[in-house]
Q: What sequence folds into this?
């Protein structure tokens, strides 16, 4: 799934949206001590109070919020793994019997409680629903031929949430004119901070792919390997941060001493141009193999780049010469320039204005600027002419 696909589904989660229909919501309360199910409840979503619906809608949007390969990961099911979750989800998706759907969801919860233990109670929520999309934007949407112009995307969405106990607080009773401690001991479900979640199946340009699942992790660049492998039964995924670090190590080795600010700036500019071109053509972010990296380095000013050296670097750092980097993971929003005495944060395109010069026998960092310098509200106007 790309950003556009995810955004298209996330936008559907709002009240009074006729294009989204949540048929059933199934909540399971799991105890921390034993992992046992303390309570389970299933009900039609439309029968819930409006305020409760809104709280859940916000929770479901959270599960679908985040950067791809940072918080959201499209994972492929490992059919050879001895994990039955794929079969549970597929049978639940295809069944029109809600009793069968609930039974399969309880099996999924069983996978969670078998492999993951928390030091707090959790609530696992599943929804079974579908959203409608126009087959063609040119067809006028009227109730007469509604089924002729819409396509129904059926899906299952899961959210795992932490529960906390409310803090004891002092309140004032206006009637009795007394100060009293709070007596509410009901656990609070943190719907705004899902611990994990997933969407099944994934949708690529509105076409369902049941071989993949969209997984959401609580911490950026830290997918839970136990949840991914033992609960979902999926292949592990490389995070955007891991891909970026691998790319930087590999480029540093290939470029060697030629890694000056201008070369780094050129590399980022080349990647940025590829991303801009893909956005203009409404394509997915390009993937960069060894031949693409070789071309980028050559065009950025790195001399003597040879195909065999690039392949070897791919094997050493990416473990496979067939590895492909997602270009969107390699372009940082900001570049940090660090020395022992100072730290600067620049836009990638401004790196070309950074140079290391020798002034009075000392190495200095030179930053070319076009405007005034301001430090904590003070404007600097002293200029030293370099010989």
A:
């Amino acid at each position: 799934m790309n950003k556009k696909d995810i955004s298209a589904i996330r936008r559907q989660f709002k009240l009074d949206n006729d294009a989204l229909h949540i048929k059933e919501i199934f909540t399971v309360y799991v105890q921390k001590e034993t992992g046992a199910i303390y309570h389970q409840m299933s009900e039609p979503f439309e029968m819930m109070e409006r305020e409760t619906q809104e709280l859940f809608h916000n929770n479901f949007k959270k599960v679908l919020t985040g950067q791809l390969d940072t918080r959201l990961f499209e994972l492929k099911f490992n059919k050879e793994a001895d994990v039955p979750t794929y079969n549970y989800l597929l049978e639940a998706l295809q069944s029109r019997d809600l009793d069968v759907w609930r039974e399969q969801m309880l099996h999924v919860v069983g996978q969670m409680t078998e492999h993951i233990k928390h030091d707090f109670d959790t609530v696992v929520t599943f929804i079974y629903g579908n959203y409608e999309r126009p087959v063609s934007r040119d067809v006028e949407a009227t109730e007469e031929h509604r089924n002729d112009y819409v396509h129904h995307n059926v899906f299952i969405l899961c959210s795992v949430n932490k529960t906390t106990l409310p803090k004891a607080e002092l309140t004032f009773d206006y009637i009795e004119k007394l100060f009293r401690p709070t007596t509410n001991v009901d656990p609070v479900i943190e719907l705004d901070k899902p611990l994990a979640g997933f969407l099944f199946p994934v949708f690529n340009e509105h076409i369902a792919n049941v071989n993949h699942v969209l997984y959401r992790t609580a911490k950026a660049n830290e997918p839970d390997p136990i949840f991914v492998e033992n609960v979902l039964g999926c292949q592990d995924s490389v995070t955007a941060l891991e891909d970026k670090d691998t790319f930087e190590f590999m480029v540093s080795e290939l470029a060697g001493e030629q890694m000056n600010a201008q070369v780094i700036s050129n590399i980022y500019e080349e990647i940025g141009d590829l991303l801009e071109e893909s956005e203009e053509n409404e394509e997915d972010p390009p993937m960069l193999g060894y031949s693409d990296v070789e071309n980028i380095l050559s065009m950025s000013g790195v001399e003597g780049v040879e195909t065999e050296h690039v392949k070897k670097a791919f094997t050493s750092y990416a473990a496979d010469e067939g590895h492909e980097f997602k270009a969107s993971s390699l372009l940082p929003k900001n570049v940090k320039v660090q020395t022992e005495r100072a730290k600067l944060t620049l836009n990638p395109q401004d790196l070309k204005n950074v140079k290391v010069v020798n002034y009075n026998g000392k190495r200095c960092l030179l930053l070319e600027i076009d405007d005034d310098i301001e430090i904590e509200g003070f404007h600097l106007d002293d200029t030293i002419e370099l010989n």
